[in-house]
Amino acid sequence: MAPAGDPKLMERVVNLAKRRGLVFPSSDIYGGFRSTWDYGPLGVLLKRNVKDAWWRSMVQLRDDVVGLDAAILMAPKVWEASGHVATFTDPLVDCRNCKERCRADQLPESGACPNCGSKETFTEARNFNLMFKTHVGPVEDDASVAYLRPETAQGIFVNFKNVQTTTRKKPPFGIAQIGKTFRNEITPGNFVFRTREFEQMEMEYFVPPDQAPKWFEYWVAERHRWYLDLGIPEDKVRIRPHDSEELSHYSAGTSDLEFAFPWGWGELEGIANRTDYDLTQHAKFSGEDLSYFDQENDERYVPYVIEPSAGADRSTLAFLLAAYDEDEAPTGEGKVEKRTVLRLDPRLAPIKVAVLPLSKKDTLLPLTDEVAKALRPHFMIDVDLAGAIGRRYRRQDEIGTPLCVTIDFDTIDDRAVTVRDRDSMAQERIPVDRLVDELRDRLGGAC
Ligand code: ATP
Q1: Which of 23, 88, 202, 314 to mutate to test the pocket of ligand 1 (most atoms within 8 A of CB)?
Q2: 397 lines ligand 1 (CB under 6 A)
């Protein structure tokens, strides 16, 4: 098993990601582009499965949360009201020696420049706003300035009234959204951990003010459970409450869920008690009344908001790192060889079932076709014809495919196939007629 904190783990996972089409450097043929990444054929499936698992647990399985898909471009006043224009900044310093730009709050304890090692050569820290600015329409003047959203949350706050009145939801209730977010990070890095374009999975949960502490605790526990349920081991995820200096301007309490990345603990998700800050600000700036009238108790209030805010890319990376393993597998000739295996939860695995004819001989191809056609509507499958069967198992193991179905020459007569399990490597003969039900059972409903 790859040990915790293994410095080679990150390198192995990044190599696997590139080699198997999970994640490529963006604009690769031009030498890449500043820590941006593209999700390839398997990566798009993995990340989509992460987002689907989030949506299922946050929206589908609850009757108190609804979804939203707001625009990335919003009225610039939104960002004035939210405080982002004034305070969404990181402290920036320049090294006078090598001109490297760094975040002042992320310098090593030695105070030396992380690029050239020289000491005490930094300029005074100045605030650098992380929002990407652009212009809407053909004229580039102050009146046409717009921002790419630096969080999806504001799209939810400005739709609070629309959603509440159309769905007739009463607090406590939530609005969930998944979408692209942009931050002009000073020092992106660590693969998809910190990039300038990423996806957030955010939910704003509107509650009566006196219930905020209770719901804050509830969501910290609920979100912690989500990572464990999808296979992150307990000792690799921790809850870290912010101390008072660290709190954002809008927060009355924040706890981060952190993962043990190979370089140390890193944030996966923040759960914040945003109080009534955002709704009050938007009411002030827009002139709209964003309070809620509670008929049962005959009282009007501005709801408090509990926000679990997660990153789809960071959790995808955490799931990959937690799943990466190396062990030994039989070659079929009485020997064993090393294998790489992603022990992904079947719900996250990009491919659920691989269909593998034992040989490429024509006699097996019609049956392979028949089995593939029967499985495709139910599961994401891959048909792999190329190479020795042992090598094909290895290829599926390293992308985390939970089950392989092998069609051999006996299948022609007995209409049964061999189902092989990724983790135990156990094999069992299953009749083709029962295959869909059997695979569904083994995958626990993952499709
Ligand atoms: P950090 O302290 O790491 O910069 P943050 O506290 O600014 O993160 P939040 O504003 O709480 O992050 O955003 C919520 C989530 O969005 C984070 O927990 C993370 O998963 C994700 N996220 C934030 N910034 C980035 C980024 N630059 N690249 C990838 N994911 C990010």
Answers
A1: 314
A2: no
State whether the beta carbon of 311 lies less than 6 angstroms from ligand 1.
yes
- Cβ of residue 198 lying under 6 Å from some atom of ligand 1: yes
Q: 186, 202, 190: which is closest to 125 by C-alpha?
A: 186
Encode pLDDT of 360-375 as tens digits: 888 899 999 999 999 9
Q: Closest by alpha carbon to 239, among 251, 261, 221, 253?
A: 221
Question: Which residue, of 268, 295, 319, is where some domain finishes?
Answer: 319
Q: How far is the CA of 247 from the centre of ligand 1 (A)?
A: 14
Name the band, by pLDDT with cuts 50, 70 and 90, for residue 2. Answer: very low
Residue 434 has pLDDT above 60, yes or no: yes
Instruction: Count helices and strands (H / E) in the chain.
Output: 13, 23
Provide the residue range defining the domain that includes 217.
7-78+151-319
Distances (CA, A) of 251 to 246, 284, 369: 10, 19, 57
Residue 258 is which amino acid?
E
**Structural domains counted in the chain:** 2
List, for residues 63-100, the tens digit of each pLDDT value: 999 999 999 999 999 999 999 999 999 999 999 999 88
The CA 206 to ligand 1 mean position distance, Å, reads 22
